[in-house]
Design brief:
The structure is a homodimer. By secondary structure, chain A is α/β, with parallel strands linked by helices. Chain A folds into three domains: 44 residues, lambda repressor-like DNA-binding domains (434 Repressor (Amino-terminal Domain)), CATH 1.10.260; 128 residues, Rossmann fold, CATH 3.40.50.2300; 128 residues, Response regulator (Rossmann fold, 3-Layer(aba) Sandwich). The first copy, chain A, is 43% helix and 15% strand. The first copy, chain A, has twelve helices and twelve strands. Chain A has a six-stranded parallel beta sheet with strand order 2-1-3-4-5-11, sandwiched between helices. A four-stranded parallel beta sheet of chain A has the order 7-6-8-9, sandwiched between helices. Chain A is elongated, with a radius of gyration of 26 Å. Chain A starts with 9 loop residues before the first helix and ends in a 10-residue tail after the last strand. At the A-B interface, helix 4, helix 5, strand 2, helix 6 and helix 10 of A face helix 4, helix 5, strand 2, helix 6 and helix 10 of B. Chain A binds a DNA duplex through helix 2 and helix 4. Chains A, B: It comes from Lentzea waywayandensis. Chains A, B: InterPro entries: HTH_LacI, LacI/GalR-like_sensor, Lambda_DNA-bd_dom_sf, Peripla_BP_I. Chains A, B: Keywords: DNA-binding, Transcription, Transcription regulation.
Chain lengths: 337, 337
DNA sequence: GCCGGTGATGTTAGCGATAACACCAGGTCG
DNA sequence: CGACCTGGTGTTATCGCTAACATCACCGGC
């Protein structure tokens, strides 16, 4: 019964393989000048001891970690959650660990504190999912030199940014309704300080302008089904409303329920389009036509941009946009009138 | 224009404060034997230099990191996503960083690989969200000595485990339907190899047994609205079905739509109860009665169990269960017959 | 007035890697 | 055939911290 001794270190491997620890290091880092036979001996020793390099020691001497910090809101909104999950997977495949710093609210202080925590950890780079303006503001405080990429952040700021092409998605959705024969399209929007919501408003308006359709007032909501329901109750009472584009699927769900309660049939009386394509959208009543963002693509672009900064210190094209696609289901029909 | 010099280290702070680096270390670690005046001088120097301790160096000498590794599936299922988010927040408050290792599928090899990646990082502890049996199997390979907590894992295994009391939630839901006057309750279940699903089946059956109600066959599905819809199509054709307990809210959504298509009104003709209380459940048609797990509580219990293991090496009570609550809305009514 | 204890601080020795340089054998070349 | 390169390897210094021990002033007690 012996005391658990410490984990094997490089010198233990070296001793077993009959070489110096430096040679072990060379094998580990794939340096060219190692004889094949030596390499094999070292690898065998590594395996035999179940040796794993000590990252702390490596980080200490190189000054670099293999860690990426992500700042995200503590919410289960479908978009951010999908993005985060996709990013973690992509980063993992690239050999980076991902440390997630959750933030309760997206205000300047919380974001700044989360970024600081990551800097304390000496992460190689930071990704901030900063979907609203106060979150974006916080990034002004981050000193240059820390590789940083913003996702869904402020398009008017100069930080490297990856985002879904909200305007295009909204344009397509609105256009689809107009093409179905509707005279105009109403819009239930997400919170005004969210860039996603703003971009969708912009795309919606552009589509209406393009066909000289009348632009009705934006119906403001947050992202919740509850607020969509309230917006829907209002719209359901207005007979001139025949088409509604909602800023996300949950808003659309609320609208759907309000319409159903008021006896306005979707899509016969009113057409509805959402945004996000949550997995259950196909099982709303009726199945929802919606816009699907490609979160995996956003994640990959983000990682690419970050890795570029980490290695070069600079970035060639610091703004990237990923186009979403319209998914047609049964919530859109020509107006009945 | 001078070259960016290296980050300040402890010796820089020491020099500025006119003390030795060891004294700086003592201040940082709140050692008692430091004169108040010295402490203040050191703190001032730390602030002036914007000094941050190098965690790699600390980890190297102490052999411990302040990192917790989490293994989770790459999915956006509401339950796991909520749990993860809650855990990250709780761990952050306790001063730990959380590294998330995503896994595409919950099979033994992937889980084992993810655990290994975390061990390479020398995390202080590991949390595995292991909701099905193949995931749980992988943990057999983890050597003792690595603090490990399983969430939603195998109740029959001896690893420390935290879980929602699935059986109680399901029992309450089923009981609620029986109390409303239904002769029996049908069940649309999640995948059979998920412990969550199994626990819910068990609770459902217990409630039926307790009132000597007939136990209809389990309708098997996965967690998706699509599979709920298929199950619902079948159940809708059976006039004797008046009450359905679904293993999660998305299944319930699919059932709701199938019922609506077949002209069976919920709750007038058929009552439905779900599980999870997703935020939009209140806006289904009709608003869904469901069971709400307390993910924050699960997260806290998990963290507590893990920290106990990290400090003591042992655990007093390695199994913890968190009771969910029934949320009553409008999808349950007495049978019409 | 000397001794031992105690509080405040400094000094030294690692932790486990990589970097930089030193070294040595063997081949190439003028 | 000696100078020079070059591939393979070892040696030493170093990263920034904490642990352990050393030091020193000051205190009270006999």
């Amino acid at each position: 019964m012996e005391k658990t001794s410490r984990d094997p270190a490089m010198t233990d491997v070296a001793r077993l393989a009959g070489v110096s620890h430096q040679t072990v290091s060379r094998v580990l880092n794939n340096h060219p000048n190692v004889r094949e036979q030596t390499r094999l001996r070292v690898k065998a020793a590594i395996k035999e001891l179940d040796y794993r390099p000590n990252r702390a020691a490596r980080a200490l001497v190189t000054g670099k970690t293999q860690l990426i910090g992500v700042v995200a809101q503590n919410s289960t909104l479908y978009g951010p959650a999908s993005l985060l999950s996709a990013f973690e997977e992509a980063a993992g495949e690239a050999g980076f660990a991902v440390s997630v710093g959750r933030v309760k609210v997206l205000d300047r202080d919380s974001i700044a504190a989360a970024v600081e925590r990551h800097r304390d950890q000496r992460v190689a780079g930071i990704v901030v999912i900063a979907p609203n303006s106060s979150a974006a503001d916080a990034l002004a405080d981050v000193p240059a030199g820390v590789p940083l990429v913003t996702v869904d952040g402020d398009p008017d700021r100069s930080t490297p940014l990856v985002t879904v092409d909200q305007a295009k998605g909204a344009f397509d959705a609105t256009k689809h309704l107009i093409d179905a024969g509707h005279e105009t399209v109403w819009h239930v929007s997400g919170p005004a300080d969210w860039f996603d919501a703003a971009g969708r408003v912009q795309g919606w308006r552009a589509a209406l302008d393009a066909t000289s359709a009348e632009v009705p007032p934006v119906v403001a909501a947050d992202w919740s089904a509850a607020s969509g329901y309230r917006a829907g109750q209002m719209l359901a009472r207005m007979p001139e409303v025949t088409a509604v584009f909602c800023s996300n699927d949950h808003l659309a769900l609320g609208v759907l329920r309000a319409m159903s309660e008021r006896g306005r049939s979707v899509p016969h009386d009113v057409s509805v389009v959402g945004f996000d394509d949550v997995p259950e959208a196909a099982y709303f009543i009726p199945p929802l036509t919606t816009v699907r963002p490609d979160f995996a693509a956003v994640a990959h672009e983000t990682l690419g941009l970050l890795l570029e900064q980490i290695s070069d210190g600079e970035t060639t094209r610091p703004r990237r946009t990923v186009a979403p696609t319209l998914v047609k289901r049964n919530s859109v029909a020509p107006p009945s009138r």
